[in-house]
Amino acid sequence: MKILVTGGSGQLGSEIIRQLKDAGRLFMAPERSELDVTDAEQTTEFIDRTAPDIIIHCAAFTDVDRAEEEQERAFLVNATGTMHIAEAASAVGAVLVYISTDYVFDGKKKDPYLEMDHPVPLNAYGKSKLAGEEAVRKTISRHYIVRTSWVFGGAGPNFIKKILTLSKTNNTLKVVDDAMGSPTYTVDLAGAILRLIQTDRFGTFHLANGGACSWYDLATEAIRLSGSPITILPCSSEEYPSKADRPRYSVLGNHKTQPLPQWQNAVKRYLASISV
Ligand SMILES: NC(=O)c1ccc[n+]([C@@H]2O[C@H](COP(=O)([O-])OP(=O)(O)OC[C@H]3O[C@@H](n4cnc5c(N)ncnc54)[C@H](OP(=O)(O)O)[C@@H]3O)[C@@H](O)[C@H]2O)c1
């Protein structure tokens, strides 16, 4: 079983690679210079030549605010790039895993989003990721679409790292408390994806850590566990304007697979891993 991981330098891709290495699995993780998903020819050539059995497609344009200003680029990477991957995967008979997002939903629900709920993205990032989902569904039947949310882990920037960095130079921090979601640790997510690909139960899945919280709750828990003396104050989204509109509620219901650990437990393990 040969596995190709795109986006291997990112938060999720690097954790998938770590777990594949630990398990002694055969994998390829080309850098963007070797496999730029926006380049149809390069993508097809790479996948044809290496003939993977499974492609775990983590590469994406993930900057939600920048996607508002660079919509064309966001669609090129997340929609067209994903179509290139799906077509090449289909041509070599590979199974495709596409990572999608809670931001395909508009946040109008009051209870966790299920896989069959109708996606209505509010921002360009969400629209481009939904277009990626559609490209996968129409191109390749042997696919897993994995929606996840509020990801944190080893590589790259994430919300918890940002809060911990700010806590070193501030006595108080204001954090939005009117947007609820499901924080998800790359270690748990990568493990769940690697279990999922052994099932041959294709389709759309929500994979997120258990429970739900606001950004304020997440910051408060991270600061409490870090032992920092600073105070976190709740504020509204209006007080913290950003370029992209975000859903106020994007908790993902995780019913089709084994539930992942609660988010508080995941944050605790993450902070222990970065020795805070
Ligand atoms: N982060 C979140 O909170 C979150 C939430 C929900 C869903 N997701 C989804 O989860 C997946 C992984 O996210 P992440 O946080 O791990 O992402 P990330 O840390 O931002 O990493 C993105 C990866 O994509 C690669 N990439 C970007 N453009 C590329 C291109 N044109 N060709 C090839 N590679 C390219 C980057 O490579 P370089 O190193 O060359 O830039 C990097 O390895 C994405 O599909 C994302 O949409 C993320």
What does this molecule look like?
The chain is of the alpha/beta class and 276 residues long. It has one domain: NAD(P)-binding Rossmann-like Domain (Rossmann fold), CATH 3.40.50.720. The protein is built from nine helices and twelve strands. Helix 1 links the parallel strand 1 and strand 2. The longest helix is centred in the N-terminal third of the chain and has 22 residues. It is globular. The termini are far apart. The model has no long low-confidence stretch (mean pLDDT 96). It binds NADP nicotinamide-adenine-dinucleotide phosphate. NADP nicotinamide-adenine-dinucleotide phosphate binds next to helix 1, helix 4 and strand 4.
Please identify which CATH superfamily we are dealing with: NAD(P)-binding Rossmann-like Domain
CATH-defined fold name: Rossmann fold
Calculate Rg over CA atoms.
Answer: 18 Å
Name of the CATH class = Alpha Beta
Ligand catalogue: NADP nicotinamide-adenine-dinucleotide phosphate
Throw out a few tags for this protein.
single chain, 6-stranded parallel beta sheet, binds NADP nicotinamide-adenine-dinucleotide phosphate, 9 helices, 39% helix, alpha/beta, two-stranded parallel sheet
Summary of the model, kept short:
With 276 residues, this protein is α/β, with parallel strands linked by helices. Helices cover 39% and strands 17% of the residues. The chain has helices spanning 11-22, 40-50, 64-69, 71-92, 124-139, 159-166, 186-196, 215-226, 263-273, and strands at 2-6, 26-28, 54-57, 95-101, 143-148, 151-152, 172-176, 180-181, 184-185, 203-206, 213-214, 231-235.
